[in-house]
Amino acid sequence: MNNSTEEKFSLKFTPLGGLGQIGANMSLIEGTDEGIIVDTGILFPRERNFGISYLISDFYTVDKKKFKALIITHAHEDHLGAIHKLLEYHPSIEIWAPKFAAFVLKEKLQETGQHHNINIYDHGHDFEFKNFTIKTFQVNHSTPHSFGLYIKTQEDWGVLYCTDFKINHDDSYEPHFNLEELAEIMKAKPKNLSLVDSTNILHKEKTPSEIELLHDIEKILNHKGRIFVTLFPSNIYRLTSFLQVAQKLGKECFFYGRSMHFYIRCALETEIFPFSPEIIKDVSDGNIETPNTVIFVSGCQCDFRSSLHTIARGHSAYTQIKGGDRVIFSSIRIPGNEQQIQQVQNMMTESGAEIITEKDFKIHCSGHPGQEDLKLLYKSLPITHAIPIHGESHFLKRHEDFIHENFPNIKTKLAYNNYELILNNKIHVIKKEAKDLILCQRNHNIIDRTVISERRKIAENGVVFVSIHKKQKNVQIYSLGVQMSEDTHDALRDEISHKAFKQHKDDETIRVFVRKYLEEYLDYRPVAVIATDR
Predict the structure, then answer these.
(1) CA dihedral of residues 60, 422, 409, 378 (deg, nearest 10)
(2) In degrees rounded to 5, what are phi and psi of residue 290?
(3) Distance, CA of 519 to CA of 85 (rounded, Å)
(4) 393-397 — which CB contacts under 8 Å span 24+ positions?
């Protein structure tokens, strides 16, 4: 596309994360004069992370003069977890968020020593910019106060931006996703592009509501022994369901884990938790060994440092798993966590507990639309064009195929991270060179990928340290994670001495020699580090 075409665009949409993976969601929406950022989230590593705590989008080239505002759609980590890093780069940015997300973000920023004013928006809020306006609308999701955006250009285009949602009509916890109201708003534009959630596209059914879980929740809480419940603590409505049923059954409830208390505190502060603070008792506040006890534990994905993992290993200072206990996993396994979750369930089973998951009872429901939800959305709204978002690359393609099969009149295109979507007389999808997500450590510092590569090599092959003392003509060899015989060790030392003191080889030549020499004996090449005392 030539520059003259770009200068006339009605709107430009650039996803920096979230299209090609589920996580690190961040998008740029801009007119010719002004732009906004939507969400700034993190992605948790799926495999052995070698010190990576999370990944973020590369936003360090975003024009700070043009992009002066950030709109957050909801309170999940994959949408707001990287805002502390964005503020380091762009400290003057104006932030808007729904009430619950605003409080969650405020608390998280305090943990990193940051303080920033956060403006709160609600359903029907209008954002006015030079080239476009945005209207917010509430959706149903798995955390309170979740929103979508409808962007109206000054020309013919409207854009529906809705990352995380499902459609409930029978949920008493929050207003339902009002498609009729949204359809009326969208009718004003002859062309409407949908940028809509693909997370659950492989599921053909409609996504259940939280209310539909109550029957089975009561069945599994009606147990004579102790009960442990683990779930995503940000799902305040699920937690509310369990607590209400537990109270109905006369159970005494306790809470275990930092994130569990964190989200309860946020829910109490935003007045969406229908309980008094007095019932929120920590595991240290009473006797949790009695049979009539329900203990809500954070760590449903069984991270090694989580409270649930601590209990499973028998390292908790408060309690141990014992015969007669029931452990309820009211959650799904996020891809990449399957092995560690299975390990925890195995340890608890061996300690005598009964494990109950969503495969046994209807105790978990997604926060994302299944195919039936999407059919209802596309039937109800005047959508003319669609580009699937929020999902793995495979999900985006399946979403596009789904639209072709069921709504052939809707024109579709595919896009991935860092592509540019330009709207003028039609939609132009411009492929841009992909940027790697940025790696961050637990202390929030950025890690270079070369460091991770070095760590991986050391973890897989071990490391050999060679210390060469020129004056004493002495060579010492130390190794970590490398098993070699004494004969191999001595022979290698003699070969290094010959090269260092008779042939006068430089350190790099010796390093290469050490790796090749050991490969003959080990069938792999350890990392070699050469240090010469000159």
Answers:
(1) 40
(2) -80, 150
(3) 43
(4) 393/20, 395/22, 395/198, 395/199, 395/201, 395/202, 396/19, 396/20, 396/198
As given in the structure block, the two tokens for residue 82 are 């990287």
How many domains is the chain built from? 3
What tokens appear for 332 in the block?
Answer: 């799904």
**Can you tell me the distance from the alpha carbon of 73 to that of 146, in angstroms, rounded to the nearest whole number?**
6
Structural domain boundaries, residue 127 = 3-205+366-447
Averages of pLDDT over runs of 10 residues in the chain (534 residues) are 58 96 96 96 82 93 97 98 97 98 97 95 96 97 97 96 92 90 97 98 96 96 96 97 96 96 95 91 93 96 93 95 97 88 97 97 97 98 98 97 98 97 94 90 89 90 94 91 92 92 91 94 93 84
| Residue type at position 407 | F
Taking the C-alpha atoms of residue 386 and residue 403, their distance in angstroms, rounded to an integer, is 8
Same domain for 189 and 60: yes
Task: Compute the residue count for the chain.
Answer: 534
Whether 420 and 493 map to the same domain: the answer is no
**How many CB atoms are located within 10 Å of the residue 500 CB?**
23
pTM over 0.70: yes
| pLDDT number for residue 6 | 53
The residues facing 479 across adjacent strands are 464
Predicted local distance difference test score (pLDDT) of residue 534: 65
Residues 6 or more apart whose Cβ sits within 8 Å of residue 523: none
Q: Quote the pLDDT of residue 66.
A: 97
Q: Is residue 454 part of a domain?
A: no
Q: Find where tokens 């024109």 sit.
A: 411
Q: How far apart are the first and last CA of the chain?
A: 59
Q: At residue 95, what is the residue type?
A: I
With vertex at residue 442, the alpha carbon angle to CA 436 and CA 26, rounded to the nearest 5 degrees, is 40
Q: Which residues pair with 197 in a beta bridge?
A: 389
Q: Per residue in 63-92, is it b (16+ CB within 10 Å) or e — as a string?
A: eeeebbbbbbbbbbbbbbbbbbbbbeebee
Question: How much is the pLDDT for 4?
Answer: 47
455 within some domain: no
